[in-house]
Amino acid sequence: MTSESSYLLIGLGNPGREYVNTRHNIGFMLIDRLTIRLDARGMKMQSNAIVITSRYEEQKVILAKPQTYMNLSGQSVQGLAHFYKIPLENLLVAHDDLDIPFGTIRIRPTGGPGGQRGMASTIEKLGTKDFPRLRLGIGRPPGRMDPKDYVLQDFSKDDLKLLPEVLERAADAALEFVVNGLNSAMNKFNGGIE
């Protein structure tokens, strides 16, 4: 790479202590993991999001957690992308996904919201579905449980044991995206824990 690029990595979730360990907040958990990995400092509020800027292998990396509540996430995503003049190919939105088994991640260049309201809001505000996303599997709710209740529950004890490994792998995938691009990240990381 000749010149520095900026990358915007956004994790979706809900603000507030009661949501910290819920399945819906796995996007926030990933941003927290990246903040530690990159030793990022200097947190600020911008575009209704918590934002921390860092560097990784010559690239500027902007980490963000929208504070709008999930359904309005697109407001922060749009505001940050506009403010930092981030081309959509340098944006990565991480979110929970009911349709993927827990422990599996899927990186995609485009796609619909799949019932995920934060992604629906983001697609609406950006005016396109063509931007990279990192889908973090949380599995289906048991029995006839309402998906809305399921995503707002804390992770199960069994899932909590695996969660650090899942987040570490997702962090590796996000940083691969920053350094070597979307195709490389998809080829290396799409799938479950080996």
Give the class-level CATH name.
Alpha Beta
Order of helices and strands: EHEEEHEEHEHHH
Helical content band = 25-40%
Which segments are poorly predicted (pLDDT under 50) over 5 or more consecutive residues?
Answer: none
Number of strands: 7
State the secondary-structure class.
Answer: alpha/beta
**Architecture in CATH?**
3-Layer(aba) Sandwich
- Distance linking N and C termini: 31 Å
Strand order in the largest sheet: 2-3-4-1-5-7-6
Q: Rounded to an integer, what's the Rg over CA atoms?
A: 15 Å
- Counting structural domains, the number is 1
The 3D shape can be described as: globular
- Report the average pLDDT across residues: 94
The name of the CATH superfamily reads Peptidyl-tRNA hydrolase
Number of helices in the DSSP assignment: 6
Q: Write the CATH fold name.
A: Rossmann fold
Strand content: 15-25%
Q: Please give the largest β-sheet.
A: 7 strands, mixed
Structural account:
By secondary structure, the protein is an alpha/beta fold. The protein has a single domain (6-189), classed as Rossmann fold (3-Layer(aba) Sandwich). Helix content is 36%, strand content 23%. It contains six helices and seven strands. It has helices at 26-37, 73-83, 117-126, 147-151, 157-180, 182-189; strands spanning 6-11, 41-46, 49-56, 59-66, 91-97, 105-108, 133-137. Strands 2-3-4-1-5-7-6 form a seven-stranded mixed beta sheet, sandwiched between helices. Helix 1 (26-37) crosses helix 5. The longest helix has 24 residues, at 157-180. The chain is globular and about 50 Å long. The relative contact order is 0.19. The model has no long low-confidence stretch (mean pLDDT 94).
